[in-house]
Amino acid sequence: MTNKIPRKTLKRIEEDIENNNLGKARDRLHGLIFTYPNELHLRKQLGDIYYTLQYPEMAGRYWYLEEHKVKL
Fold first, then answer.
1. How far is the C-alpha of 9 from the C-alpha of 5, rounded, in Å?
2. d(CA 10, CA 38)
3. What is the CATH number that goes with domain 2-63?
4. How do residues 3-47 score in pLDDT, each as one tens digit?
């Protein structure tokens, strides 16, 4: 299913993360999740960003659908 998500947007998200612009990456991921709600890997990535930003409650909202959960 990932092939329908614009590669350009995914690349921008990766660049934002590499440049430590997590706020922009977060915003882009929110937009993609709104458009592609069934793409669980986007939710995982957003949860990871929220965790890095020290918002574990928000991270949990996006991690709860993960099939393989790990304890932190």
1. 8
2. 16
3. 1.25.40
4. 689 999 999 999 999 999 999 999 999 999 999 999 999 999 999
**Three-state secondary-structure class, residue 65:** coil
Residue with tokens 């993609």: 32
The span from the CA of 17 to the CA of 41, in Å, is 16
pTM attached to this predicted model: 0.85
Query: How far, in Å, CA of 59 to CA of 22, rounded?
Result: 13
**CA-closest candidate to residue 45, choices 35, 57, 32:** 32
In 3D, which of 59, 42, 50 has the Cα closest to residue 4?
A: 42
Q: Which amino acid is at 7?
A: R
Q: Are 62 and 46 within 8 A, CB to CB?
A: yes
